[in-house]
Amino acid sequence: FFLISSKEVYSDMFLKWLWNKFTSPNEPSILRQTAMAYIATFTSRANCVNKISLMNWLCKICEWIHAYIDQSDGAKSNVNGHAHGAFHAACQAVFYMFAFRHEEFKDSRAAVDILSELSLQKIVACRLNPLQYCARAVVTNFSSTANYLQLAYCETVLQKNQRSHLRRVVSSSAFMSSTNGIYPARLQSYFPFDPYMLTD
């Protein structure tokens, strides 16, 4: 992390390498999801990633997400979300980046205008339902921040997801595990550059 952060050219190369991993259809889904987790946490935590670079990466990832949504319109949605792992990882990255660094652009009208063009509402309300599969802490923080900036309103979708979850629990045995389909397969909240808690 220190070495990559030491020069802008290193961080650019690192992020581009991760992006190539993520966008390659030949890579296993778990590696694509991991690459996106690295992009999310590096752009959020590294001081060398300035606001302009952050906005560029948000735009790039959202462009990919919207293209994926458009391509998936005629396809059947997968109940457990496994078929759309890369998509949900990209959404979680956007939610994480947005929530973690929102302080840097909340007072900039120009930045908010750019963010409004990302169509975040379309992402959270799409039929692939990323709010259902992303880590709960990430979704909660993104929801409150996006609502505050009036860029997306997640509460309706969150309430619908909660009602759907309750219906599945009521209609199934209370002792069934998530592998039997009661609970959606949430993404792991794995962000490799989050601070470590060191012992004394």
Q: Topology, please?
A:
Layout: H1 2-6, H2 8-23, H3 29-45, H4 51-71, H5 85-100, H6 109-116, H7 120-124, H8 130-133, H9 136-148, H10 155-170
List keywords for this structure.
200 residues; mainly alpha
Verbal overview:
This protein has 200 residues and is mainly α. 60% of the residues lie in helices and 0% in strands. The protein is built from ten helices and no strands. The chain has helices spanning 2-6, 8-23, 29-45, 51-71, 85-100, 109-116, 120-124, 130-133, 136-148, 155-170. Helix 2 runs antiparallel to helix 3 (29-45). The longest helix has 21 residues, at 51-71. The radius of gyration is 17 Å and the shape is globular. 30% of the residues are buried. Residues 168-183 have low confidence and may be disordered.
Overall, the morphology is globular
Strand content: under 5%
What structural class do the secondary elements suggest?
Answer: mainly alpha
Q: What is the H-and-E element order?
A: HHHHHHHHHH
- Care to count the β-strands? 0
The N- and C-terminal alpha carbons lie at a distance of 23 Å
The major beta sheet can be summarized as: none
Tell me the radius of gyration. 17 Å
> Any low-confidence stretches, pLDDT <50, length ≥5?
168-183
